[in-house]
Amino acid sequence: MAPSAAPTAAPVLPSRGRLRPLGLDDVRVTGGFWAERQSVNAAATLEHIAYWLEREGWIRNFDLVATGGPADERRGREFSDSEVYKFLEATAWEIGRTGDPEWESRFRAIVQRVARAQDTDGYLNTRFGHAGQPPRWSDLQWGHELYCVGHLLQAAVARVRTRPGADDGLLAVACRAADNICDTFGRDGIDGLCGHPEIETALVEFGRATGERRYLAQAALFVERRGHGRLGDVEWGREYFQDETPVRQATVLRGHAVRANYLAAGAVDVATETDDPGLLKAVRDQWRNTVARRTYVTGGQGSRHQDEAFGEDWVLPADRAYSETCAGVGSVMLAWRLLLASGDSGYADLVERTLFNVVSTSPGADGRQFFYTNTLHRRELGTVPDTDRPSIRAAAAQRAPWFEVSCCPTNVARTLASFGAYVASTDDEGLQIHQYVPGTIGYRPADGAERRVTVSTGYPADGQIRIRVEDADAHPWTLSVRVPGWAGEGATLTVDGEVRPVRPGYAVERRTWRGGDEVVLDLPMAPRFSYPDDRIDATRGCVAVERGPLVFAVESVDLAGGGNVDELRVDTGRPPTLAGGRVQVHCRRLDPPDRDWPYDGQGPTPAAVPSGDLVEVPLIPYHAWANRGPSTMRVWLPTI
Amino acid sequence: MAPSAAPTAAPVLPSRGRLRPLGLDDVRVTGGFWAERQSVNAAATLEHIAYWLEREGWIRNFDLVATGGPADERRGREFSDSEVYKFLEATAWEIGRTGDPEWESRFRAIVQRVARAQDTDGYLNTRFGHAGQPPRWSDLQWGHELYCVGHLLQAAVARVRTRPGADDGLLAVACRAADNICDTFGRDGIDGLCGHPEIETALVEFGRATGERRYLAQAALFVERRGHGRLGDVEWGREYFQDETPVRQATVLRGHAVRANYLAAGAVDVATETDDPGLLKAVRDQWRNTVARRTYVTGGQGSRHQDEAFGEDWVLPADRAYSETCAGVGSVMLAWRLLLASGDSGYADLVERTLFNVVSTSPGADGRQFFYTNTLHRRELGTVPDTDRPSIRAAAAQRAPWFEVSCCPTNVARTLASFGAYVASTDDEGLQIHQYVPGTIGYRPADGAERRVTVSTGYPADGQIRIRVEDADAHPWTLSVRVPGWAGEGATLTVDGEVRPVRPGYAVERRTWRGGDEVVLDLPMAPRFSYPDDRIDATRGCVAVERGPLVFAVESVDLAGGGNVDELRVDTGRPPTLAGGRVQVHCRRLDPPDRDWPYDGQGPTPAAVPSGDLVEVPLIPYHAWANRGPSTMRVWLPTI
User: Fold this and answer.
1) Which partner from A176, A445, B237, B331 sits 20 to 30 angstroms from A505, CA to CA?
2) Residues in domain Non-reducing end beta-L-arabinofuranosidase-like GH127 middle (chains A, B) (predicted)?
């Protein structure tokens, strides 16, 4: 990687690999779907998180440790420190993006409170290690101490990359904490690891940000230690925290879906920095099998409520989909790292799918309520979360303002604030655009003049993406634009008035660009049916409706006469249509007889065949559901 | 009910209602499916349970309380006392059935140890209320104190009904415990109830057994108290313990499936004894809706692992079926009570289905290992439980010898030992036979001579049931034989050589019987396909195979060449066959292509259509699966 004076403002900056990411300073998002979400994130979500962190006492926990306050006044779960750190990370990206002075001063104030809680040897945790508390590292299985430090390091990385040399003290706190971990868990230290992966990816990135190789070595050690049963048994089996099989030997992601993705992200980081193709291949294979057999059509991951875990292959029930928001964030982290390492467009496809259909589904339109899990089917209106206290239920009928385990709001906030860093990358040949958003992308290659492009698009409402090269260049370079897998055979690229079909992957145009040259990518935006693999038992005989990168859903509030979403049967002989900007399908209504016993020898009887008129049923983008009061909803629609 | 000198040896003896049960002394099971299970229960399971109860210290807990031993030596969960009581109940039925002197003396020894732990005021629990323990009744939500006493009372009922006047002391212990509860939780006492229903049905039956109305009144009070939120909130909502809606207002069973069934059973008992048709109707409606929409084809109940709970209507995933063994036992308890109250054959149908396909599935062939949950689909071989320690996992790949929550083995044992009491009943008109088992049934009506019948059958392997009336009678009486719902139009009844078709329900023959008269019921035993209601998303496009009352399954150990059960697609154009005593279906194998993403616009493509030869695939009765080493298994088979 070419050295540069100012660091790239991005969460992941590998020192080698196929692609080099651009950062928040290089990619300016000026409008459209993601700009709107970033603006709600800045205007509402960050403030909302700050309010709840104070209200629940999770920041005050640091004050308590700093002042030697009574241990029994500590509030929140054992990992509540991490929410403060993720909030700091989100705020750091936001300050980097907008330079907001108000957030700058609030950021500094919280960092000070965190810093005061740090022990002299660098140990930092509000739940362990002080008077009246369990000893440090006494519960590696569930204590989350290393996990919390991981998020502290990621916050410091965000700060160093956006405000290098800032005198807020966060970098020093993070260095001491990272050193303490290396001192404690190095080859001569405790032969342990954390029940919740996160420290691995964080240590590598912190090593990249600081140039300190020791952190990378410690991350590699943690990755290698996992999979040998060191963490012991838990009710759901050792695969819950991926401790039953070493990373190099595993063939698929399994167990707790957030843990699995964070660990795999860390393993990619280690593989990249240590130039370990075997480790990288192991994770790529795991990812491929996971996406092929264990991922929802939304990109969501994790089928099981009980242990927040992946199911076995093909176990993807819509109605008990866990699809935790944080697993979506973790999946974006993993896929982005694999994309940078390999340059394969499939990774960017999953990033797009997951951002649009999981990460952006979690927050409500007001940015002050969140889905923790993202079910694909709600059958009953269910209970509405109390808006004035943390929800104890992961699966509420509507979004909740806060959770006792409130990992999702902060994870969404840090992802949205750093969204620009997932848009584009460069290599020695030129520029790659992975995600389409109105704005500008500009960077200066190591050996050349600045290259700037302007992207104009109404995507994802519209499928045309116009990319205008702003600067003339004496030398040729390659512009690569991602053609999403969902586009099939339907995309075209227009350059200089010449239209050519382009297949999924990267459509490339190499030339000596003149200022004002334009490349137009046209993606096919007719709504379409998607059929599940026949091995997915839960959705056999159903279709989903997609348009562009968006998955659609039918929501009961859109049905005339308070209809039941479960009674609809789609006529797949009639393709979905666009009418007045809305996607529609044609359905009949099932009118089943009441029976005493739901199993009989009649086969699909005439009584079970839907009758009544064919009606047009409007759908909405899945991410937009549950913003209009209690409702029922389906993504997968049974066919006639 | 007509008074009789010796009590009927049955767990449920309502003082009014449509039918009067016969007991273990009236119904002698002499061979066949259930005799074999009772014999394994007696020869292996009871001994196995006794071993584990001692080994885990759950009986010793009583010694600890009796001797004032240190509280921290107590072992097991808060409800471990109940396992000792259920074991006593099972043993009492077994002694009643066989008169085994060895079990008699062991029974008495355990009763003595229990009795010594009782406080002077009747309070009895090893987890609360003594030095170093939490106070009595300090955790009604989770403490299970009332639940445990409920099982004590049921053990005492079994003993009083099988050995009236025995001097073992159990009745006195139970009376003191029941009185203590009435003193504590009466109208002027604690306005509370137990997080786990069980005390309600137990108090009613104990009242029936002792003639003490006070116990009935207390049971009625507990039933009425539930549903008003007295227990407070839990993570899974108040419906977890049925405390969100009063019993009279609820329309379906919901929440924790064992709790729901036990509560409903108690409500039926209260309704029957207090002649409360409104309460009875409420439970009958709940049962009907639950069976129509929330019950597996096996009779299993409970769809969710997380909270061991019913799902919403139509949520019946095969692969995450919880179908807890104890919920099956509870469902049999409830349906039996509703049958006695109403005389409707549908209740006996569910008793039969659940006994054959849930209760008899739990224990392995050797009677020393048990399924806690009874999944309908196992996709992976999974882990095999350690045979030398309690399993902490409810969903093991094979049966486990014991569990940390070991409610199922003792529940199976008490049900099998008392099986004879679920076979037949009487009313003023005559005799009703509900379950078919080789043996004799004899009773003396209040106003007449003894009536004895002999039942000969190979059921469920064979569909012919021969019922021979042994005694001549001067007066006519009615013999009613149940025609199961699954028999459809295919059953016939032969009396005196005359064959007539009989429909599901009770086929009745009223006559003045001569000794040697024979009635022959012929049930249609061709294996058959059963199709699920189209509203059950999880099994859309699948069939199950049934024969008689048995649900069948395909198990991987029966597939040639180590086949994958998930690749089979059944040709429903060819009915299942019987070949060499085995049920078979015709299948092709799915040969799906490897794809990077499991959703596409192609619809059911040629590639997804199964190919290859049509092969005959053998099935086994579901209850018999997992007795031949690790395997995968399916009940619901996708169709071609």
Assistant:
1) A445
2) 431-525
Cβ-Cβ contacts under 8 Å for B11 (sequence gap 6 or more): B93, B154, B157, B158, B161, B205, B418, B421
Query: What is the signed CA dihedral for A243, A246, A250, A254, rounded to 10 degrees?
Result: 20
Which of A535, A596, A602 lies nearest to residue B592, judging by beta carbons? A535
Residue A45 lies in a domain: yes
- pLDDT of B226 above 90: yes
- Residue A592 at interface with chain B, using a CB cutoff of 8 Å: yes
Whether B319 is in a domain gets the answer: yes
The tokens of A330 are what? 């973790």
Helices assigned H by DSSP within A311-447: 325-342, 345-354, 407-417
Q: Are residues B308 and B231 in the same domain?
A: yes
Q: What is the pLDDT of residues A174-192, one digit of tens each?
A: 999 999 999 999 999 999 9
Give the separation between CA B199 and CA B219, rounded to whole angstroms.
Answer: 7
- A254: helix, strand or coil: coil
A473: domain range?
Answer: 428-522
Q: What residues in A contact B317, CB-CB < 8 Å?
A: 317, 320, 537-538
Cα distance from B581 to chain A (closest Cα, Å)?
Answer: 22
Boundary residue ending a domain (A422, A439, A455)? A422
User: How many structural domains are present in chain A?
Assistant: 3
Q: Which of B236, B288, B541 sits opposite A596 (nearest CB)?
A: B288
Q: pLDDT band at A454, cuts 50/70/90?
A: very high
Q: Are A374 and A358 in contact (CB under 8 A)?
A: yes
Question: Residue B194 corresponds to which tokens in the numbers above?
Answer: 């137990």
Q: Say yes or no: B245 and B344 in one domain.
A: yes
Q: Are residues B311 and B407 in the same domain?
A: yes
Same domain for A334 and A390, yes or no, is yes
Q: Which residues of A touch B638 (CB under 8 A)?
A: 534, 537, 540
> Which CATH number goes with the domain that contains B457?
2.60.40
- B5 within a domain of the structure (yes/no): no
d(CA B161, CA B501): 39
Would you mind telling me the total number of residues written for chain A in this entry? 640
Q: Show which of B494, B522, B550 is a domain's final residue.
A: B522
* CA distance linking residue B59 with residue B84, whole number of Å: 7
- Candidates A350, A597, A611: best to mutate against B (most CBs of B within 10 A) is A597
State yes or no: ipTM above 0.90: yes
Q: Residue A536's closest chain B neighbor by CA?
A: B598
Q: Determine, for residues B312 and A379 on separate chains, whether the beta-carbon distance falls below 8 Å.
A: yes
Task: Enumerate the residues of chain A whose CB falls inside 8 A of the CB of residue B393.
Answer: 235-237
